[in-house]
Amino acid sequence: RPTLILCTATQCESASDPQLNAVVGAASLASALGLTFVVLDASPVAAVAEALSNARATVISAAPADACETFRAALRAAAAMTAGDGVVAWLEPTQRDLVRFVPRLAAPIREGPADAVLPRRPAGPGAGYSAAQRHAEAFGNLYLDAEFDALRRGAGAPPAPPLDWFFGALLLRASLVRLWAEHDAHGPARAAAMLLPLVRALRDGATLAAPAVAYVHAAEQLPRASSGANATSWPPAPPGASQATAASEAPAAAANANANA
Prior knowledge:
Elements lengths: L3 E7 L7 H15 L3 E6 L4 H9 L3 E4 L5 H15 L5 E4 L11 H9 L5 E2 L13 H25 L14 E4 L3 H6 L8 H13 L4 E2 L33 H6 L1 H10 L2
Parallel strand pairs: 1-2, 1-4, 2-3, 5-7
Antiparallel strand pairs: 4-6, 5-6
């Protein structure tokens, strides 16, 4: 059984969905690196699962669900497949380029001293996002950092560095997955399913790392105008979604997390 497993979730309407191209690319790269890539798939067409399997992803069929529940279900599935207290890495389905950084990002957990890793993208235009998207995400990150700091202090948890919440990637020691799996936040904003369990993990003594990676978001993966079932997925928004829209929903997402404390 592997000690490092990547996971994500998909719901593609057809085999021509741009999101599928990104996930297939991520799965192929993971396979080339010798990594196990688990995809929780709720797509209505069998061709999607077939394409993922052909890219050597481990495909788990699932019923359609909101962004928070698919996030938790993917973490649970990956943790169940991990040997010992290995590492589970959640990637948004559009983050093909992030796969190449996962072994390095997992090192602080595998070798100590971290228990959770929230990677950060480089500042400025180099990551491939539009200026509007970068500014919207910067606002959302600042807001959620403030909410996170208030929750952290209220729980008596230690300080944390500024975090790139809108990047959406998360690596966990497998034994910590239960904190995220047990949290009952629902809705389109995945931050509600990420923020509060992290506070609880830090309160219980977990250590957090937030290393920067030279991630580049491919042009064909950039979000289009808001539409479709994934229009308010959190973070980052998949193709067919507006990142600026997601940023504007940051206050509501944080309030939702606070209400479930």
